[in-house]
Amino acid sequence: MKRFKRAADIKVAVVGYGGAFNMGRLHLNEMKRAGMTPAAVAELDPKRLEAAKQDFPGIATFRSTGELLTKSDAHLITIITPHNTHAKLALQCLRAGRNVVCEKPMAITTAECDAMIAEARRRKVLVSTYHNRHWDGHIVEALKRIKNEREPLGELVRVECRMGGWSKPGDWWRSSKSISGGILYDWGVHLLEYALQVIADDMVEISGYAHSGFWGAQTRWGARDGIEDEATAVVRFKRGCMLTLRISNIESNPKPGVVEFTGTRGTYVMNFPDFEMITHAKGGETVKTVGRNPEGEWWRFYQNIADHLTQGAELTITGEWARRPIHIIDMAFKSAKAGRALPVRHR
Description:
This protein is an alpha/beta fold. It has helices at residues 23-33, 46-55, 65-71, 86-95, 110-123, 137-146, 177-180, 187-198, 300-311, 319-338, and strands spanning 11-15, 37-42, 60-62, 76-79, 99-102, 127-129, 156-164, 203-211, 230-237, 242-248, 259-263, 266-270, 274-280, 286-292, 342-343. The longest helix has 20 residues, at 319-338. The mean pLDDT is 96.
């Protein structure tokens, strides 16, 4: 892998500068904050290319990824496009010898992730996924409190990840099964990534359950291509811990907390603004601790990328790490279709 003397020597680009959430601007600014140099943007919409020129005066703009690769010498390219295009665009950039970051999720299938990892190895370049929420304050606080020397929760027995409510999905590409991959691929990937930071064990098997056809029939995508109304993934780990992920648009009684860690001696409920830990003292009395979570440090993602490319620092979000939540979701949907649990390929 090529090493750079300074972060400023790393020219960076984005594929996709769409209006949703201003993600193109966010990524280029985060890369710039890490010391790297914004160099190019590829985007289909001429209006968004004009916005990029306003945001980053002098930046090169292109109408396609192919044009960017031919006419720009950007060293690191971040892909900010719908989920079903990630693998194709990433492989195109990797084959051109460029380092690649994909917006979350890395891809839709395990096979796509495998192909991206293999190509990066072949070309001796980097492939990663923008898991900026790896540094969210709520998971940083959870790790500090759960994984301390006292092991306050005891042996970890189950981890429950959940998000949902009763509402019709919006009429955009994330409501399309073929484009987004399904209901679990948006927030579900974040929640799994949180949980996998805590569970230090190998996965053994995955089960999946899904219900479709209620909301999907009422969106412009139609029931055949609408995302699921609700889906659940269940992961069994080698030492017996169970991880569940449920994302629902038909949840009429939402539960508190987005991730709940339960052990033999206590429970930790992780919310976005705050946390609650319930443990048991030696005398048997219940001890409840509540508090606020610190601010997240999303800037650490691209700082780690820059440090890896300049100093050889260990890469936090490797392709293999980013593949784990995709493998869980991919196998869960296959399990739901097959009606049985399936063994994992990547632990």
